[in-house]
Amino acid sequence: MSGLRQAFDEARFGGGRTLNLRDTLPTAAEAVARAESWLRQRQIEVAAAEREPEVLVITGRGNNSDSGVSVVRSAVEGLLHRLKQRGVVRQHREHTPGSFVVLLAPVHALWEVPPRDRTIEVKQPAPDPPSLEALDRDTRLLLRQLAERSLEQLGVRGDRDRFLESEMLRQFSALSATLSSQGSREEQLRTAIQAALEQYD
């Protein structure tokens, strides 16, 4: 079925209206930069040639990613939401678990974007994973910082809270495996977290 779907997609979109990020294995940041540039260019070209304004963006479904979650897919989806606010994208929908069909907005929408609300929105931080409640508050704060730095390094900029809990658990699991059975394991854990944070500096 995947081969048949690919054949239909090639017939429908062709090479000029398909962006395949899956084949080049970019980081999330690289994928976002490439996708934004490509979508803006397609918006202009589609308007000039009066072509069909739907394009296909292939991100991959993240089968080889940690926890099976595609960081690239999530980052690109966040980009599509932002480009909708900026008059580049009219709407998008999931085509397959690893691709989006994107309807480009007409060029005049770029000048019709309403002014941004400058009101500062106070956002509540994502809660810590319940399984880490036994740790001291300071340890959990350090672990949260490490998870945030790790996600930032992966290029996750938008809806980072969606991945924060799983990233905290992943970091905790990885660091716990390195601790000695001698002495306070929580003190060792804090030391390990601080050492990991220093590597990002």
Going by helix content, strand content and strand pairing, the class is alpha+beta
Report the CATH architecture of the largest domain: 2-Layer Sandwich
Question: Strand count, sense and closure of the main sheet?
Answer: 4 strands, mixed
Domain count: the total is 2
Uncertain segments are none
- The overall pLDDT, averaged over residues, is 80
Count of β-strands: 4
Multimeric organization: single chain
CATH fold-type name of the largest domain:
Ribosomal Protein S8, Chain: A, domain 1
Question: Care to describe what's here?
Answer:
With 201 residues, the chain is α+β, with helices and mostly antiparallel strands. It folds into two domains: 2-111, Ribosomal Protein S8, Chain: A, domain 1 (2-Layer Sandwich); 130-200, no CATH class. 49% of the residues lie in helices and 11% in strands. It has helices at residues 2-13, 28-49, 71-85, 137-153, 161-176, 185-200; strands at 18-20, 54-58, 89-96, 99-104. Strand 3 and strand 4 form a beta hairpin. The longest helix is centred in the N-terminal third of the chain and has 22 residues, at 28-49. The model has no long low-confidence stretch (mean pLDDT 80).
